[in-house]
């Protein structure tokens, strides 16, 4: 491997690819990059990512902190290598004989792999994303996703956009599911008990939250898993529906509308916040006025109905 390749790569990336020069180990070969990374992963799995430090890793291994720096230049190197190590997931073999692979099922499995990594290593999404994937296991997973889309009539850029869409969705749901699991620990305050749900129902009134209140009242807002709804699977299928529609349009040669430009961000300004607050208050007043209008109309109808029935009874008596 040319020296300029190693020089062009960050230290952790060069280490992951095996193109970085490694220090000579002692006669017992007690310390290595692999042992450092495995120990860091064990610490994070047990105590969270915040517990991972060079001193903690060295202590667990029985070495001095300075000895680690013969192998890695910083904690950031360790974090990057940890991230790549846990991305060494089982990848289905490439079945080139399959003329019409089920790309939906393939992408479904590809997206689920991200969820499985977060389930096994809850700290995984806490490692910041600092750029495009460069590590071998990360790139192997990306290559798997692109292989699933090999036969689709999409450009390279479109395939990358699909991969980003699905991986971002899986990552976001994985974080939410992880945090929800943590909230259900024995020492966490209950957020799905009957008392909690009843209290929430008192606060979320139809007058203030006209569309949310019925959902809270139905019990669907507090997800305890009893409704049989898999939120990840539901969202994933809707995304795949959209991709399938896009692919079909490509195959039929339909003109597709270009993606619109992103709207400008709302200025973080006091006058804008005050205007937004005034709008919300006006919308609330409008909802209340409409409610009073509906109630007045309903009372008028009831009054007319009573008067009509009374007139009919009087007419019936006179007819006798």
Walk me through the structure.
This protein is an all-alpha fold and 320 residues long. It folds into two domains: 3-86, Orthogonal Bundle (Arc Repressor Mutant, subunit A), CATH 1.10.10; 103-251, Orthogonal Bundle (Tetracycline Repressor, domain 2). 62% of the residues lie in helices and 0% in strands. The protein contains 13 helices and no strands. It has helices spanning 3-8, 11-17, 33-47, 54-61, 65-68, 75-86, 103-120, 136-148, 156-183, 194-203, 212-218, 231-251, 270-319. The longest helix is centred in the last third of the chain and has 50 residues, at 270-319. It starts with a helix and ends with a helix. 15% of the residues are buried. The model has no long low-confidence stretch (mean pLDDT 85).
Keywords:
320 residues; mainly alpha; Arc Repressor Mutant, subunit A; Tetracycline Repressor, domain 2; 2 domains; 13 helices
Topology (SSEs and partners):
Layout: H1 3-8, H2 11-17, H3 33-47, H4 54-61, H5 65-68, H6 75-86, H7 103-120, H8 136-148, H9 156-183, H10 194-203, H11 212-218, H12 231-251, H13 270-319
Helix pairs in contact: 2-6, 3-4, 3-6, 7-8, 7-9, 7-12, 9-12
């Amino acid at each position: 491997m040319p020296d300029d390749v190693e020089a062009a790569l960050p230290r952790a990336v060069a280490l992951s690819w095996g193109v970085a020069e490694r220090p000579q180990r002692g006669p017992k070969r007690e310390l290595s990059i692999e042992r450092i990374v495995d120990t860091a992963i064990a610490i994070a799995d047990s105590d969270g990512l915040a517990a991972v430090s060079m001193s903690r890793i060295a202590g667990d291994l029985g070495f001095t902190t300075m000895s680690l720096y013969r192998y890695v230049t910083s904690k950031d190197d360790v974090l990057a290598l940890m991230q790549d190590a846990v991305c060494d997931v089982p990848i289905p073999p490439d079945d080139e004989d399959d003329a019409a692979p089920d790309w939906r099922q393939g992408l479904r499995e590809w997206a689920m792999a991200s969820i499985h990594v977060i389930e096994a290593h809850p700290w995984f999404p806490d490692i910041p994303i600092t750029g495009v994937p460069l590590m071998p296991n990360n790139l192997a997973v990306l290559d798997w996703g692109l292989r699933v889309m090999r036969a689709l009539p999409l450009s390279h850029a479109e395939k990358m956009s699909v991969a980003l869409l699905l991986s971002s969705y899986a990552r976001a749901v994985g974080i939410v599911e992880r945090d929800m699991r943590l909230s259900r620990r024995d020492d966490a305050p209950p957020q799905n008990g009957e008392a909690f749900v009843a209290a929430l129902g008192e606060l979320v009134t139809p007058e203030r939250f006209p569309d949310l209140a019925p959902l809270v009242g139905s019990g669907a807002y507090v997800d305890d898993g009893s409704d049989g709804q898999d939120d990840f699977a539901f969202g994933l299928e809707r995304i795949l529906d959209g991709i399938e529609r896009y692919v079909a349009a490509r195959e039929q040669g339909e003109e597709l509308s270009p993606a619109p430009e992103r709207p400008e961000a709302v200025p973080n300004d006091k006058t804008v916040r005050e205007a937004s607050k005034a709008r919300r208050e006006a919308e609330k007043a409008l909802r209340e006025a409409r409610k009073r209008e509906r109630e007045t109309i309903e009372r008028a109808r009831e009054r007319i109905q009573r008067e009509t029935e009374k007139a009919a009874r009087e007419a019936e008596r006179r007819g006798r």
